[in-house]
Amino acid sequence: MHFDTLALRATHQPDTTTGAVVPPIHLSTTYARNEANELPANYIYTRTNNPTREALEKALAVLEGGAIGMAFGSGQAATMTLLQALRPGDHVLVSTDAYFGTPALLEQVFHPWGLTYTRVDLSDLSAVQASIHENTRLIWCETPSNPRLTIQDLAAISEMAHAVGALCVCDNTWATPVIQRPLSIGCDVVMHSTTKYLSGHSDVLGGALIFKEDNDFTQRVRQIQGLSGAVPSPFDCWLVSRGIKTLSVRVRAQSATAQRIAEFLDGHPAVEIVHYPGLSHHPDRALIDRQMSGTGAMLSVRVKGGAAEALQFIGKLKLLIRATSLGGVESLIEHRASAEGPNSTSPVNLLRISVGLEHPDDLIDDLRQALDWIINPANKAA
Ligand SMILES: *Cc1c(COP(=O)(O)O)cnc(C)c1O
């Protein structure tokens, strides 16, 4: 079956008692036993398992082509739970260009707890090889990367990880399974912030892990999920399942608009460079064509000048919303350096754009008037 059909079918298990086409939301935290003290189904208590969460977890596994899916209360809760399955003394490799919170978790929570880690440019394979130690247990990829949209070679990195018995994890939040299937090219685990494209409407916080195999490590993560309880509410699970039904049409429409916006920005005299996998001059062109079946709806633009010009530009926008996060139906733009604060490694002239479902002409008109404004000599002194 094609991905669109899979996404719809995976989230539709008509209710067997009522026939309801849209699955109900099971809010009960506890499940009754019969006279013989047996549970009629496998449910006992919602922290450990819940039918609405289980439906989402099955859908997640189908989307990414994995054996097991697990849902969490946020993307960070998913990352946290996976890292908790490692042991003090284990070593993790994480990209220099990664979602800000991932290395922050390693540094602020897991480093004091005994996990060691190295930040490395994962798009440089010889640097990756040189950073792998005997105790490396996990390589954390995120491609396209945040916020520079560099591409990491998932097949090659997985091979390097497996050579030392380590796992290769891919944060697939930006690409989504619509355009990138990491488990099919060697990765062992996929992570998602379902807050973003999977739910798709900026109204639910959630995370996911999908495992290629059901093995001891996978069961250890399952155990921690149930014990520590960083799980989503049934209503949030239902919302993510609903979002998944339209994932593929949203991502394809948003990507087409992103392509048009990237090409427009690329030719504008106020722009220094556009980072977008769909542009012919992207340095990882060949890898993109091999690894991805689309180019996504995230892009970054660096304006000529510094932080002042970048902030002036976004200050003039009327349609794009100045806000953090991504993957919703409304276009968002953010100055990452100010969002990340003093430890940020994001260039000060960089703005990250999450392209939504507005008409592309309206978005381009808005971007054009704001860029024209900052290079108009009459406004220079302002
Ligand atoms: C948002 C995001 C996260 C963190 O997810 P939360 O749901 O905010 O906890 C992790 N990775 C990427 C790429 C993200 O965009």
Explain this structure to me?
The protein has helices spanning 3-10, 51-64, 75-84, 101-110, 125-131, 154-163, 176-179, 216-228, 234-245, 247-266, 285-291, 307-315, 336-340, 360-375; strands at residues 68-72, 91-95, 116-120, 136-142, 167-171, 189-193, 207-211, 271-275, 298-303, 321-322, 332-334, 350-354. The strands form 2 sheets. It has a 7-stranded mixed beta sheet with strand order 1-7-6-5-4-2-3, with helices on both faces. The chain is of the alpha/beta class and 382 residues long. Strand 2, helix 4 (101-110) and strand 3 (116-120) form a beta-alpha-beta unit. The chain is globular. It has 14 helices and 12 strands. The longest helix has 20 residues, at 247-266.
In short:
By secondary structure, the chain is α/β, with parallel strands linked by helices. The protein has 14 helices and 12 strands.
Low-confidence stretches: none
Distance between the termini: 57 Å
Secondary-structure element order, N to C: HHEHEHEHEHEHEEHHHEHEHEEHEH
**Whole-number mean pLDDT:** 96
In helices, the fraction of residues equals 25-40%
Helix run count: 14
The proportion of residues in beta strands is 15-25%
What hetero molecules are in the model?
pyridoxal-5'-phosphate
Radius of gyration based on Cα positions? 22 Å
Principal-axis shape: globular
How would you sum up the major sheet?
7 strands, mixed
The secondary-structure class comes to alpha/beta
**Strand order in the sheet with the most strands:** 1-7-6-5-4-2-3
Q: Let me know the number of strands.
A: 12
